[in-house]
Structures are given as structure tokens and as C-alpha cells.
Design goal:
The chain is mainly alpha-helical. It has 4 helices and no strands. The termini are far apart.
């Protein structure tokens, strides 16, 4: 969860305690919904309860769709053998319509 938190909230791994429960619910859902090898059971009931306690129905749907899109992009990167984090800012700046 540390890497996701770092990207989303500028929090270093291990410093998750600075986030309130509202901001911890979404990364927990993303983490549990992403892990396959050791979390094949999916998102826990506790995490779902936290998410539903902080977000309305439309926000939950948007959050789940966002996590799914990020996971799909990551899987495509694995298939194409593109290492995560290989993008460098400005790579497409020379492209025009």
C-alpha cells in the first residue's frame, strides 16, 4: 500500500499513519483488489465496510473502476515487458495532432 499512498498522497512508505481513515479506505481497497498471489479471497468485508462508510455508491463504483483500469494497464505492461515507472515526463511533448 505504501507505493500507492506515495503516489496518491505524497506519503512515504511506512508513514501511512498520517492519513485519516477516509484516505486509508481507498488505498486499502486498491491494495486488496490488486493482490492475486496472497490475497485470492479478494477485498475483505472490513475493507468494504470502511469504503462504504466513507464513500457513496457512485464514488465506490468510480473507485472500483479506477482500480480495475490501473490493474489492466499494469497487466498490459507486464505482457509487453514494460517495467513500471519507466515513463519519463515529457516523453510525448513533441507529438502534435
Amino acid at each position: 500500500m505504501g507505493q500507492l499512498l506515495g503516489v496518491a498522497y505524497g506519503v512515504e512508505p511506512g508513514d501511512e499513519a498520517v492519513l485519516d481513515t477516509h484516505r486509508r479506505a481507498a488505498p486499502a481497497l486498491a491494495e486488496e483488489g490488486t493482490r492475486l498471489s496472497d490475497a485470492h479471497h479478494g477485498v475483505s468485508d472490513e475493507t468494504w465496510a470502511r469504503v462504504r462508510g466513507h464513500y457513496d455508491g457512485e464514488q465506490v463504483v468510480a473507485l472500483v473502476c479506477l482500480v480495475a483500469q490501473i490493474n489492466a494497464a499494469n497487466r498490459l505492461g507486464v505482457i509487453a515487458r514494460k517495467a513500471g515507472g519507466s515513463y519519463e515526463a515529457g516523453t510525448f511533448s513533441g507529438m502534435t495532432d
